[in-house]
Design a protein that fits this description.
six-stranded antiparallel β-barrel; six-stranded antiparallel barrel; 21 strands; about 5% helix; Secreted trypsin-like serine protease
Length: about 230
């Protein structure tokens, strides 16, 4: 039986390709670290995210669930994290209806999970980067998509990688179900940007929200929450 698993706290993309320093997708991808206190102890959650403005990051909302004590984002140079943290000043969550699918099995899975995204406003903008433009939901989905994710390496945000995705299904609300090609997405890649090609660079369709897998924490079937539901106004 397949399980639906939020991808968010450890491990990186298995396979895929190391991010290039000149890749527009990689240059707009960041690591998101959130400190939460669900009880007497503190816990650190790590995810991926995408710059949609110099001071705005789009990620998966479950990466900042609860009442976080604090959150920061780190940009990357190629596949390596830059030691320059940008604190999160505010966050806004955006939920959406997943829509309908012809496949009964996939439709049942959609009903079992909560799909949403979050926009993080930074205290200081990330300089020298070109944020990703949001795709128009009316645009045609190509035969392949690109995913970027940072995962983990030891106790710090890990190596930035990219992977190719093949779309399998698209709902009327913009949710995409896709399969990874030559790679597997793992927890830590949650919130990672998924882009389609545009005339002047990649366009952000959405962020990785959940993975369908018979064995956590990695899998090759992804649910991609659409970026169009998120307003850049907090």
């Amino acid at each position: 039986m397949a399980l639906t698993w939020p991808i968010g706290q450890t491990h990186a993309i298995e396979g895929g390709a190391l991010a290039r320093a000149d890749d527009p997708l990689a240059r707009a991808t960041v690591a998101v670290g959130t400190l939460v206190q669900p009880d007497a102890s503190l816990r650190l959650s790590r995810c991926s995210g995408a710059l949609i403005a110099p001071d705005l990051v789009l990620t998966a909302a479950h990466c900042i669930r609860g009442n976080p004590v604090g959150a920061v984002v780190f940009p990357y140079q190629g596949s390596r994290r830059i030691a320059s943290a940008h604190r999160v000043a505010a966050a806004a969550r955006h939920a959406f209806a997943p829509g309908r699918l012809a496949s009964r099995d996939l439709a049942d899975m959609l009903n079992e999970i909560s799909l949403d995204v979050a926009v993080l406003r930074l205290e200081t903008p990330v300089r020298g980067r070109r944020p990703l433009r949001l795709a128009d939901r009316s645009q045609r989905i190509p035969s392949t998509l690109q995913l970027a994710g940072v995962g983990l390496s030891g106790s710090t945000a890990g190596t930035l990688k990219t992977a190719t995705l093949k779309p399998l299904a698209l709902t009327e609300t913009g949710l995409i179900i896709a399969r990874t090609v030559g790679a597997r997405a793992c927890v830590g890649d949650s919130g990672g940007p998924v882009v389609i090609p545009g005339r002047s660079g990649p366009l952000l369709w959405g962020v990785a929200s959940a993975v369908i897998t018979p064995q956590a924490p990695c899998g090759n079937i992804l649910m991609i929450a659409p970026a169009a539901i998120a307003s850049p106004q907090l």
